[in-house]
């Protein structure tokens, strides 16, 4: 279990740094077109990796339907609505709404998976959200009025949370890495069609041939998106959607660190306060503290 948690933490670091990478990329390329191409490259990268590992195979008709359904919520709905939403709301509002992802995932786990969540873990989720709130609001002028962009970001988070539930219900014999590759490739085609309707010019992708942008793009597509989603989707099947989702709170922290390192932005004392809440939230919400507490109780009972 410890290895899974360490892997999730590293993935959150890549996703946090990916925020800075995407900020650099969208300054040169249309956001929806960039998203389509980035996800397509990520999907192809996953399938190439799986081919080398000799686990690549075509999905059955039933598996294909499930993959398309997950791709619709996890890739199409999530990425399109968050791309449009971010352009119509403030960074603070978006950060706070994204911070609710673990809470929504937990509620959907209870609703669709009949998963029992202890009050101890609920406390962890709330602490994590509090940390995200403190971190997001710090130095950004506070929460602004609700806009259509906020609704779009909320829809994207709900779509992603529901996809986590679908992934956890997949046939255990179906490799989650295969799901990741096909999901990303299929989803990218839908997003690309949307980008064409939006009037995106495909010729903008030539910008990625430059060394600097090309390097940033490969990190975003291959490391953060391809490898990141492979490991995250595998974690969902092993530890559960709610337990995996609580780690998403760390993305906010690493996004701040990445902004400071790569974009020259300032980290404030309140950011560290938010980090403390997030760390305790993850430790409690993931069940790590509860597991250690129960283990110590068992040892005490055996010693008496």
Descriptive labels:
304 residues, mainly alpha, 13 helices
What does this 3D model show about the protein?
By secondary structure, the protein is an all-alpha fold. 78% of the residues lie in helices and 0% in strands. It is globular, with a radius of gyration of 19 Å. The two termini are 29 Å apart. The model has no long low-confidence stretch (mean pLDDT 82).
Mean pLDDT: 82
Report the total helices.
13
- H and E string: HHHHHHHHHHHHH
From the alpha carbons, calculate the radius of gyration and give it in angstroms: 19 Å
Beta percentage is under 5%
Largest beta sheet, briefly? none
Q: Based on Cα principal axes, name the global outline.
A: globular
By secondary-structure content and strand pairing, the structural class works out as mainly alpha
Give the uncertain stretches in residue-range form: none
Helix content: over 70%
Question: Using DSSP, what is the number of strands?
Answer: 0
Q: What's the N-to-C terminus distance? A: 29 Å
């Amino acid at each position: 279990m410890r290895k899974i948690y360490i892997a999730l933490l590293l993935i959150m670091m890549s996703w946090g740094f990916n925020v800075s990478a995407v900020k650099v990329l969208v300054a040169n390329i249309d956001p929806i077109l960039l998203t389509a191409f980035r996800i397509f490259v990520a999907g192809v990268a996953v399938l190439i990796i799986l081919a080398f590992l000799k686990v690549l195979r075509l999905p059955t008709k039933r598996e294909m339907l499930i993959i398309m359904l997950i791709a619709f919520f996890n890739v199409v709905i999530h990425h399109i609505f968050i791309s449009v939403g971010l352009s119509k709301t403030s960074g603070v509002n978006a950060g706070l709404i994204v911070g609710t992802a673990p809470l929504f995932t937990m509620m959907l786990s209870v609703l669709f998976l009949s998963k029992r969540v202890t009050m101890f873990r609920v406390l962890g989720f709330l602490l994590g959200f509090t940390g995200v709130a403190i971190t997001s609001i710090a130095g950004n002028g506070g929460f602004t009025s609700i806009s259509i962009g906020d609704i779009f970001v909320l829809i994207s988070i709900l779509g992603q949370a529901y996809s986590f539930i679908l992934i956890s219900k997949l046939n255990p014999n179906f490799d989650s890495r295969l799901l990741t590759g096909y999901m990303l490739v299929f989803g990218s085609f839908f997003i690309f069609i949307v980008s064409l309707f939006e009037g995106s010019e495909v010729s903008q992708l030539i910008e990625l041939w430059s060394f600097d942008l090309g390097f940033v793009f490969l990190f975003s597509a291959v490391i953060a998106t391809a490898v990141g989603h492979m490991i995250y989707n595998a974690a969902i099947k092993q530890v559960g959607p709610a337990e995996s989702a609580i780690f998403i709170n760390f993305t906010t922290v690493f996004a701040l660190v990445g902004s400071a390192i790569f974009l020259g932005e300032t980290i404030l004392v309140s950011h560290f306060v938010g980090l403390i809440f997030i760390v305790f939230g993850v430790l409690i919400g993931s069940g790590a503290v509860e597991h250690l507490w129960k283990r110590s109780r068992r040892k005490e009972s055996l010693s008496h």
